[in-house]
């Protein structure tokens, strides 16, 4: 089974977590794109979605799924999103698609976070995937110097502007042994909007597609 087939399998499995007549929190990325396709098939059973990016919003609307502003929604039962890395503690690195800030906001607002990955994303320790940090443009060089002090090797993601009109630094060579602490430390640097460690609010459920099926970790 190739990686896309696994992404499709895990996207299908995530549909069971979507409640009838609910508004669904929707993440961003190639795995989520498969999930949005599945959501399109049951669109008459849901009220709509809250989206974490302009890209997902476009795909949702193209399928006829109503997209609500988060400010209009008081009750979000589930948020479904992919990850770049996920541990057995259900801590993640996210932001490979530069949507980390809105993803973190919608994840924070949801009762249950279901993370959908293929098994290649499962790691013992976070950090091999360069950690994305969303930064206010004028703070880019200052924040980069602060990240070096933390032991990282930040690289400006050239040509990328986030949906919030900010820039991304990808931090290489971090071995993230204490993700909750590092998440807070990086977020405390002035000019950082947020970073791609999702540990303070990790996933509640991880669905991981393997050669033989979809494993569930709670
Ligand atoms: C986007 C994300 C994605 O969830 C993450 O990059 C995984 O994407 P994919 O499913 O394409 O591997 O955090 O900001």
Give an overview in words.
One of its GO terms (biological process) is D-ribose metabolic process. Homodimer. This is Ribose-5-phosphate isomerase A. Pathway: Carbohydrate degradation; pentose phosphate pathway; D-ribose 5-phosphate from D-ribulose 5-phosphate (non-oxidative stage): step 1/1. The active site is at residue 103. The chain has 218 residues and is of the alpha/beta class. It has two domains: 3-123 and 200-217, 3-Layer(aba) Sandwich (Rossmann fold), CATH 3.40.50; 131-196, ACT domain (Alpha-Beta Plaits). The protein is built from six helices and 14 strands. The chain has helices spanning 3-14, 30-41, 54-62, 100-109, 140-149, 179-187, and strands spanning 23-26, 48-51, 67-68, 76-81, 85-86, 92-93, 110-118, 131-135, 153-156, 167-172, 192-195, 197-198, 205-209, 214-217. It has a seven-stranded mixed β-sheet, sandwiched between helices. Helix 3 links the parallel strand 2 and strand 3 (67-68). Helix 1 (3-14) packs across helix 2 (30-41).
């Amino acid at each position: 089974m190739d990686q896309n087939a696994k992404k499709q399998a895990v996207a299908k499995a995530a549909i069971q977590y979507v409640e009838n007549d609910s508004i669904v929190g929707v993440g961003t990325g190639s795995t989520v794109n498969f999930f949005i396709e599945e959501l399109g098939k049951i669109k008459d059973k849901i009220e709509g979605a809250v989206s974490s990016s302009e890209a997902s919003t476009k795909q949702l609307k193209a399928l006829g799924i109503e997209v609500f502003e988060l400010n209009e929604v008081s009750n979000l039962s589930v948020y479904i999103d992919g990850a770049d890395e996920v541990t057995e503690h259900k801590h993640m690195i996210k932001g490979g698609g530069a949507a980390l800030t809105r993803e973190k906001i919608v994840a924070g607002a949801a009762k249950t976070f279901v993370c959908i990955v293929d098994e290649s994303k499962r790691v013992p320790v976070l950090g091999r995937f360069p950690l994305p940090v969303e930064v206010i443009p004028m703070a880019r060089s200052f924040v980069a110097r602060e990240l070096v002090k933390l032991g990282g090797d930040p690289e400006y993601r050239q040509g990328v502007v986030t949906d919030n009109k900010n820039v991304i630094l990808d931090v290489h060579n971090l071995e993230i042994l204490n993700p909750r602490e590092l998440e807070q430390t990086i977020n405390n640097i002035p000019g950082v909007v947020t970073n791609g460690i999702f540990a303070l609010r990790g996933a509640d459920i991880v669905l991981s597609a393997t050669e033989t099926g979809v494993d569930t970790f709670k």
